[in-house]
Design brief:
mainly beta; 7-stranded mixed beta sheet; 4-stranded antiparallel beta sheet; about 50% strand; globular
Length: about 120
């Protein structure tokens, strides 16, 4: 069965850091553009970051730019979202996705794979 397994979420104080990981199982991660989305309670899902197949650097939404970094390790079939200087408004369920293409910080087109979602809570 092809799937993502997410890890790394949790509770952190404002200003803290977390690194989310998504390990790909049953498919070759390097073949796909990858991205992260998030959804907070009562709010619509929003794109956070996107990294194209062959790009070294991804792009991030303005509200996380300079704080969040998307990356991948194809040898480990794992993608990451490094989140620094976290704010309470970053509290959400975060989803990793693969497939489609990057348009700026947004992963568009057909999503092939999606993680189960992982909770990130920023609170003192």
């Amino acid at each position: 069965q092809s799937q993502f397994v997410e890890s790394g979420g949790g509770l952190v104080q404002p200003g803290g850091s977390l690194r989310l990981s998504c390990a790909a199982s049953g498919f070759t991660l390097e073949y796909y553009a990858i991205g992260w989305f998030r959804q907070a309670p009562g709010r619509e899902r929003e794109a956070v970051s996107c990294l194209s197949r062959r790009a070294n650097d991804g792009e991030s939404a303005e509200f996380v730019k300079g704080r969040f970094t998307i990356s991948r390790d194809n040898t480990k079939k794992t993608m990451f979202l490094q989140m620094n200087s976290l704010k309470p408004e970053d509290t959400a369920v975060y989803y990793c996705v693969a497939g489609g293409y990057c348009s700026g910080y947004q992963l568009l087109g057909t999503t092939q794979y999606r993680g189960q979602g992982i909770q990130v809570t920023v609170s003192s």
